[in-house]
Amino acid sequence: QVRLVESGGGLVQPGGSLRLSCTASGITLRISAMGWYRRAPGNEREMVAQISSGGNINYVDSVKGRFTISRDNVRNTVYLQMNSLKPEDTAVYYCNKSPPRRDYWGQGTQVTVSS
C-alpha cells in the first residue's frame, strides 16, 4: 500500500548540486513527519534531514548550510536540495517517515560526488 520512490541522483563534481525527489503513495505527507537518509559504503544508514508535519526541520551537522529539505503537499513529494556537494556525500539516499519504518524502505537513489 505504501510506496516511496526516490529519484534525482547522479554523478556530479565536487561543489555541484543535485535535487532529490521522493514521491509517496499510500501515505499523506501533509500529516506525516518525513526524513531523508543515506548509506555510504562501509557506513551505517544515517538521517540527513527531517521535516515534521508542522514544518520543524533538522539536519545532520555535516550537511547544515548545504542541504535543504522541503515538501510539496499537493504533489505528495518531499525534496532534498543538495548544494556544495563533497565526495563524502557519496551514498545511496532514501526517504522514509521519521522515525523510519522498516517496511517503507525503497530502492533509494545513488549520489556520487567525484572529480
Describe this structure in words.
The protein is mostly beta strands and 115 residues long. It contains no helices and ten strands. It has strands spanning 3-7, 10-12, 18-25, 34-39, 46-51, 57-59, 67-72, 77-82, 91-97, 109-113. The strands form two sheets. It has a six-stranded mixed beta sheet, with no helix packed on it. The radius of gyration is 13 Å and the shape is globular. It starts with a strand and ends with a strand.
Indicate the overall shape: globular
Q: How many strand elements? A: 10
> Order of strands across the widest beta sheet?
2-10-9-4-5-6
SS content category: mainly beta
Poorly predicted tracts of residues:
none
Largest pleated sheet: 6 strands, mixed
Distance between the termini: 40 Å
Write the layout of secondary structure elements.
Layout: E1 3-7, E2 10-12, E3 18-25, E4 34-39, E5 46-51, E6 57-59, E7 67-72, E8 77-82, E9 91-97, E10 109-113
Parallel strand pairs: 2-10
Antiparallel strand pairs: 1-3, 3-8, 4-5, 4-9, 5-6, 7-8, 9-10
